[in-house]
Design goal:
The chain is α/β, with parallel strands linked by helices. The protein folds into 2 domains: 136 residues, Rossmann fold (3-Layer(aba) Sandwich); 79 residues, SIR2/SIRT2 'Small Domain'. It has 8 helices and 11 strands. The chain has a 6-stranded parallel β-sheet, sandwiched between helices. Strands 7-6-8 form a 3-stranded antiparallel β-sheet, covered by helices on one side. It has a two-stranded antiparallel sheet with strand order 2-3.
Length: 228
């Protein structure tokens, strides 16, 4: 089976009702991004940060995967599909995809501030005073600005093995995730699904742009790949 590596961003989850990462003014649902998504923000006002992610977690539990998520699952009938996502939601998991790497962490998990290897599944609110087994405060299992991306090397190795690369709902402007496109083998077909793509087809060899929202674009891509 040919291997399809899929890079997904906020655009694929937006149709499910999850707001995209930030607005043009640099705010995330009305919050200054550095106040709620950085180690400095957490140190300065942990209650604000925990409340912010509690709200995001509740929102996630109220939404469902959309057609784009399900079509990625359907591709597994004919291809070896591996997803690398910048999203912290679990919509790929809920739609049934079997190989998912979360570059930026997972909203439904928390981890120890003392030992980052202590990661716990978590669907309820998280408060100051919620401690790990080593009596240290728990924090969202999210990669914040200024922190290392621990699964980047894994993502690079996955991308190197791609026979086909698919990019959905991401501007490819946020690094280091945007650098993954540089690791595909020469002559690898690349499909970019986005209604307002940030790149043009002449910027990358073998790049085809599908100017559609994620659900419509995935329908077109699925038909295209299955007919080849």
């Amino acid at each position: 089976m040919k291997k399809i590596v899929v890079l997904t961003g906020a655009g694929i989850s937006a149709e499910s009702g999850i707001q995209t990462f930030r607005d043009a003014d640099g705010l995330w649902e009305g919050y200054n991004i550095m106040e709620v998504a950085s180690p400095e923000g957490f140190a300065a006002n942990p209650e604000l940060v925990l409340d912010f992610y509690n709200k995001r977690r509740k929102q996630l539990l109220d939404v469902k995967p959309n057609k784009a998520h399900y079509n990625l699952k359907e591709l597994e009938k004919h291809f070896d599909v591996e997803i690398i996502t910048q999203n912290v939601d679990d919509l790929h998991e809920r739609s049934g995809s079997s190989k998912i790497t979360h570059l930026h962490g997972e909203l439904l998990k928390v981890r120890s501030t003392f030992d980052e290897s202590i990661v716990i599944n978590w669907k309820k609110d998280l408060f100051l005073g919620d401690l790990c087994s080593k009596k240290s405060q728990l924090r969202p299992h999210i990669v914040w600005f200024g922190e290392m991306v621990p699964l980047l090397d894994k993502a690079i190795e996955i991308t190197k093995k791609a026979d086909i690369l698919v990019i959905i709902g991401t501007s490819m402007q946020v690094y280091p995730a945007a650098s993954l496109i540089d690791f595909v083998k020469e002559n690898t077909p690349i499909y970019f699904i986005d209604p307002k793509p940030s790149v043009s087809e002449n910027e990358f060899k073998n790049l085809k742009i599908i100017k559609e929202i994620a659900s419509k674009g995935m329908c077109k891509l699925k038909e295209l790949l299955e007919n080849k």
